[in-house]
Amino acid sequence: MKEYLPQKSVILKISRFSLVTILVFSWLFFGWPPIWQNPSIPQKIETAQALTQEANWAFTGNATGWTFTNGSGTDTCGNTTSATTNSLATFAYNANTSRGITGTTASTNYRGNINQTFVAPGSGTVKVNGNLRVDADVAGGGSWGSGWIRLDIYDSANSTYVANLACESFTSNQTAHDTSFGTASLSGGTTYTIRITLSGTVGRKALTFVVDNVIVTTAPVGLVATAPAGTTNAQLDWTTSTAGSGAPAIHGTTPYKVYRDTSSPVSTFLANATTNSYTDSSTAGGATYYYAITNLDTNSIESPLSAEVSQLTRPAAPTSVVATDGSATDKVTITWTQSTGATDYHVWRDSTDLGAAGDVATFDDTGADAPTITPGTAAASDGTSADYAALSVSGQSANNGTTHTYKVVASNATGNSADSATDTGYRGVGSLTYQWQRSAADSDASYANIDGATTASYNDTGAPADGSGRYYKVVEDATGATQQTSTSDRGYRSVAVYSVSITPAGDIEYGFVSLSNSTTTIGSTYTKTATNDGDTAEKLNVKSSDATGGTAWTLASSIGSNIFKHEFSTTTGALWTVMPDSATYVTAKPSVAVSGTADFDFRLTAPSASTDYQQKSITITVQAVAP
């Protein structure tokens, strides 16, 4: 805080040198009030912990803390040098001011300085500004020479000039007024001297200089900027400003002012702060901002700007996060809209950080859980068909990979953004394919692929026809998933039963047949019906024996002496087939389904000559075999 006490209403002026002398001596020796009626002001400007403004002085009731050095001071405005000249005739505290009165020797320079030390707060470069209230008069309206009052910063020994904060030169009377504020940069933690020089060169009469309300104020210190996690804000914190002893307190409602720009130097007012902390929530993500602060006392005197700090804000959370739902079998692809100012992104699967992805807007998660195959249970038929073993599988499935929850976090040199919104995704799976295998023997071992057996259901015609058992299983594949094999099962073909029955029962009687003539069963009751009463389709063959009884007749394809011809028809005589000899079966029906029938008629042609004419017997055989 700055020390700034109210301007005093009484400023003594001299009309004659003799009167001044009387008043001064009366004050010094004859009953003026004691100087220290109020509690003493410390001998130095206080620099309490976290102090960010130096105390101000208004010489209230005394001049404690100030050292009056007569006869020396800094040269006139614009100079940085000092000189020792004549001492001021009067140089002392007076009526809540500091007053200096020159001697009366014309063209003679008189000077003196008042000073005290202080420690610049904080560390690094600390800005300080200051001004003071001045008054200058010549006694009795006499002519002016020249004079000046200046406020300077010197080193701790008050010997080396550092900076000037205020300076005014005079050649005429001056009404009491405040000088302009000047600004300088100091080193925090270093001891300095405030020096106020009063100097005048006499024209014809003594000059009077009055100093009051010395203000020296430093900028706040300890300003740091951070970027709070999970936001795009900038957080400012600094050391609390504390007023020096006797100085006006920090302002009650707007003790600090925050300034911000997007480049240095900072000059644009942003907001008031009520404490030594301020959150700037108007920042954009991934942008750099520059900050400085000032403080105000109860008189609304504002300090210089503090040292600047800059802060790169965290990036905003990525938006439009999308994870693929099974469009690929080998990965889940996550995409997002990039955040301004981000330089890297991390994709999270569930609670796992998948690592730095770089400055990209897409990421392939090949580590997402792979799709799977549930192989199911194989079944093989147990003799339900003589032609094949029926194979099937149940309970099998191709399954998508596990559904994961994804989010994306952006980052830059400052840190991470807040989490993005989430989306779910998973790896897809291809269609199931099948390959059936059969064991080499009747044991659950030594499997080999069955050619062409690539469907979920398959009839294995390659199973042993004799009904021997075999074990079966199916190998299943799907793109993206690990191959699986079903359980195994034993199956076999049934042994085929080929059987035929002939109706009506009984013999066929051809009756008397003349030599070289033929007779048939067509139109008689001797047409025979063959029925498949086996358990599978069958082929029907037929043959005829030679004729017996007396001299035997031989069966042949054409008649002759003691040679006859025997034929059959399954088309009611539309087509006749010769039975060529007694040893040969002739196919009558290539395939007759189970319970299917075939009608047989026969035609006999007698020999062209016969040794005898006895009754003959012939046997007709119908055979059922595999088609």
Describe this entry's structure for a reader:
The protein has 627 residues and is an all-beta fold. It folds into four domains: 17-218, Galactose-binding domain-like (Jelly Rolls, Sandwich), CATH 2.60.120; 224-237 and 249-312, Immunoglobulin-like; 317-494, Immunoglobulin-like (Sandwich), CATH 2.60.40; 500-625, Immunoglobulin-like (Sandwich), CATH 2.60.40. 2% of the residues lie in helices and 42% in strands. It has one helix and 48 strands. The longest helix is centred in the N-terminal third of the chain and has 13 residues, at 17-29. The relative contact order is 0.09.
Short summary of the structure?
This protein is mostly beta strands and 627 residues long. A hairpin with a 7-residue loop joins β2 and β3.
Which short descriptors sum up this protein?
1 helix; 4 domains; Immunoglobulin-like; 627 residues; disordered N terminus; rod-shaped; 48 strands; 2% helix; mainly beta; seven-stranded mixed beta sheet; six-stranded mixed beta sheet; Jelly Rolls
Write the layout of secondary structure elements.
Elements (H helix, E strand, L loop, with lengths): L16 H13 L37 E4 L1 E3 L7 E3 L1 E2 L2 E5 L2 E5 L7 E11 L5 E14 L7 E10 L5 E10 L3 E5 L3 E6 L3 E11 L5 E12 L5 E3 L7 E4 L18 E6 L7 E5 L3 E4 L7 E8 L13 E4 L6 E5 L8 E6 L6 E6 L2 E5 L5 E4 L6 E3 L2 E4 L8 E6 L2 E3 L4 E8 L11 E3 L7 E7 L7 E3 L8 E3 L9 E8 L6 E2 L3 E3 L8 E4 L14 E3 L7 E5 L5 E7 L9 E2 L7 E7 L7 E2 L7 E7 L4 E9 L14 E6 L2
Parallel strand pairs: 4-7, 43-44
Antiparallel strand pairs: 1-7, 2-3, 5-6, 6-14, 7-13, 8-11, 8-12, 8-14, 9-10, 9-13, 15-16, 16-19, 17-18, 17-20, 20-21, 22-23, 23-26, 24-25, 24-31, 27-30, 28-29, 29-35, 31-32, 33-34, 33-36, 36-37, 36-38, 39-41, 40-47, 41-47, 42-46, 42-48, 44-45, 44-47
